[in-house]
Specification:
The chain is mainly alpha-helical. The chain is 75% helix and 0% strand.
């Protein structure tokens, strides 16, 4: 009890995608609602650390982490030898976050390219790919 049922949300997202496919995109707001539902689920699951449907926050986090890494390096007079233990701990956290944000940004761009290519090849049937994956992962 008290455990979130993410599979139900994923099935609902897939159902909304399939409705759009069946109706030949007569209701594009269903796709927008599905994206919002997916984003809310991931935000809840990750404790507001991740987003999946837009990359503005990810790009901001990526830039902030990179800025903190550079700032620490400049404050240490261009040498990591004068880092204190606290600097190393913060540096490790920022490196991990930078890596995660770069991976998310890459995946978002790659997914956009793949989605555009799929739509070019099969038009409306391209919606079956994310719907199918969502059902399988749910």
């Amino acid at each position: 009890m008290g455990q979130a049922r993410y599979e139900l949300v994923l099935f609902l997202v897939a159902a909304m995608e399939l409705v759009c496919w069946c109706q030949e995109l007569s209701y594009p707001e269903m796709l927008a609602a599905a994206m919002g539902l997916q984003n809310a689920m991931i935000t809840s699951w990750s404790g507001a650390a991740l987003r999946t449907t837009h990359m503005t926050g990810t790009a901001t986090d990526l830039g902030s982490s990179l800025g903190r890494i550079c700032s620490r390096f400049f404050r240490a007079c261009w040498s990591s030898e004068s880092y204190k233990e606290q600097d190393w701990n913060a540096h490790a956290v920022d490196q991990q976050k930078l890596f995660l944000m770069c991976c998310l940004q890459f995946a978002f761009v790659a997914g956009g390219i793949a989605g555009a290519a799929a739509f070019r090849m099969s038009e409306m049937h391209a919606l079956l790919l994310p719907a199918g994956l969502t059902i399988i992962l749910g």
